[in-house]
Design goal:
Blueprint (H helix, E strand, L loop, with lengths): L13 H5 L19 H34 E3 L7 H4 L8 E11 L2 E10 L3 H12 L4 E4 L3 E7 L5 E7 L9 E10 L5
């Protein structure tokens, strides 16, 4: 019997092989889909903004630390005079190695620490007399603090305290004096 066309395999030509569209292989997992979701775009923009603000913030803090490190100079308290500190140094007080001078934002700030074996009340009485009636006076659990203002931008703060376990039981006197820096021309 003659071969009918239904029994024969179909004839495939080379043009038919290449005309079939290729589909992506799915053997690596789910098929790839393009996402144009507006919610995803908004989330990515917000994340990028927060990262940018974080980088700027770190830069600002780094600059501030660099500026302060460049501005503050550690010096022993013994190098300061009463005119540097804006008030008298307690008689017989021992200067510490902890002191500083800084030029910050148009102000010169001098800080010095002294110690004495005299009782806190005696040191307070001395500074009350030196500070005068215009001084602001604050008493704390361990001592007192005076704040004096002399003219625009000039302040002196004297902190007096005794902490029994610290500094060998001595009274600590911390003097900070801030003055307006002369205008630079």
């Amino acid at each position: 019997m003659p071969n009918s066309s239904s029994d024969q395999p179909p004839q495939v030509t080379s043009s038919q092989i290449y005309s079939q569209p290729l589909s992506p292989p799915e053997s690596f997992g789910a098929p790839i889909h393009k996402s144009n979701s507006p919610v995803l775009k908004a989330v990515l923009i917000v994340v990028a903004i927060f990262i940018g603000l974080g980088v700027i913030g770190v830069g600002v803090v780094g600059f501030g630390v660099w500026y302060l490190a460049r501005s503050v100079h550690a010096v022993p308290s013994a190098t300061f005079t009463e005119s540097d500190l804006g008030i008298a140094i307690y008689p017989g007080a021992e200067p510490s190695l902890t002191g500083s001078r800084a030029e910050i934002v148009g102000k010169t700030v001098v800080s010095a620490v002294y110690f004495t074996r005299d009782p806190v009340d005696q040191v307070i009485a001395f500074y009350k007399d030196k500070a005068g009636p215009t001084a602001h006076f604050l008493t704390t659990a361990h001592g007192s603090e005076f704040r004096l203002s002399a003219g625009t931008g000039n302040t002196t703060t004297v902190g007096i305290m005794r902490i029994p376990d610290a500094s060998g039981g001595k009274t600590r006197i911390h003097i900070r004096h801030a003055t307006q820096t002369a205008a630079q021309h």
